[in-house]
Amino acid sequence: MTDPLLEVEDLTVKYRTEGGMLTAVSDASFTIDPGEYFGLVGESGCGKSTLTKSLLKGLDSNGQITSGTVRYKGEELQDLSETEINDRIRWKEISWIPQSSMNSLDPLQRVSEQALELAAVHTDLTREAALEKFRDLFEIVGLPKERVSDYPHQFSGGMQQRAVIALALFLDPSLIIADEPTTALDVIMQDQVFKYLDRIKEETDTSVLLITHDISVVFESCDRIAIMHGGQVAETGPVTDVFDDPRHPYSILLQEAFPDVRYPDRDLGVIEGRPPESMGEVTQCTFADRCPWAKPECREGAPPLEPTEGNPAHVNSCIRSHEMDQLAAEETRHAEVTDDND
């Protein structure tokens, strides 16, 4: 067994607001292994981007980690200074592909100049060696090598996205955080970007933390998954286990909300309501008010992540997880009877 590359343990992140402290992430836990593709999934507003920004001190000025630990290669990161993160971790160990990452390219600089700045700060590569390495990365992400010296405006949106991925790979990081890397791209370009990420997986030992609202993308591309709702981790485990045997109501409903090629005529599910805004301490399951199977006990304490019976690698935070097969089946039968009556 190898040690985890990244360990997030009982992490809580809060924002100072005029109305008090808003809890955006509550006691979240998961691990990422070396060379692993890990998907973090949930609807907009569930806290997944806040969680990942907190890993590299990327929170807004009113946000802070209030408890929990973040360990990278065994070292705790949450107490490091901004300078230490910049000098030792960011880009060199952990790189970031942000949402709408095309906007992260400096429009006044050639793309190669941005790579050369990274090389000058973090490596001892000569200018020519750095350029040659960057040209090789352009080839990996499907861009012509000779275009490394172009300005961002000379690229299409999809090409800009791939240039950002090349920059993220430039210093050979052990982990890439990709936050909705295909936002604002059409479906053809989305497919191409994921093909390039898959190629990176085949040709390097880099781990990837993929943040997305699209659970089907994670099922297709990742090794393991964590599903978030309302700032809490609902379920985590190997993608095959979570796909075939979801144990949390949110996981079941989220999976039903996306098309499945095996059931082309199936009506898509709808998760009613929106993620809650949790002020102060979180003292219940944050999905309880939206859950079709909630009981009074669901509001009597924040549920911990516990192993699924017979599978310690697959954990969930639902007190009714052992009943999920029966509850989901009853819900399906009820929906079929309702459709027949209509």
In percent, how much strand structure appears in the residues?
A: 15-25%
Helix content: 25-40%
Walk across the major sheet and give the strand order. 6-7-8-3-9-10-13-12
SSE run: EEEHEEHEHHHEHEHEEHHEEEH
Q: What's this, in brief?
A:
32% of the residues lie in helices and 24% in strands. The chain is of the alpha/beta class.
Question: In words, what does this structure look like?
Answer:
The protein contains ten helices and 13 strands. By secondary structure, the chain is an alpha/beta fold. The chain has an eight-stranded mixed β-sheet with strand order 6-7-8-3-9-10-13-12, with helices on both faces. The protein is globular, with a radius of gyration of 21 Å.
What labels would you give this structure?
alpha/beta; eight-stranded mixed β-sheet; five-stranded antiparallel β-sheet; 13 strands; 24% strand
Explain the layout of strands and helices.
Elements (H helix, E strand, L loop, with lengths): L5 E12 L2 E13 L4 E5 L6 H8 L7 E10 L2 E2 L5 H8 L4 E4 L13 H12 L4 H14 L16 H13 L5 E5 L7 H17 L3 E6 L2 H7 L2 E6 L2 E7 H6 L4 H8 L21 E2 L26 E3 L2 E6 L7 H18 L1
Parallel strand pairs: 3-8, 3-9, 6-7, 7-8
Antiparallel strand pairs: 1-2, 1-4, 2-11, 4-5, 9-10, 10-13, 12-13
Helix pairs in contact: 3-4, 4-5
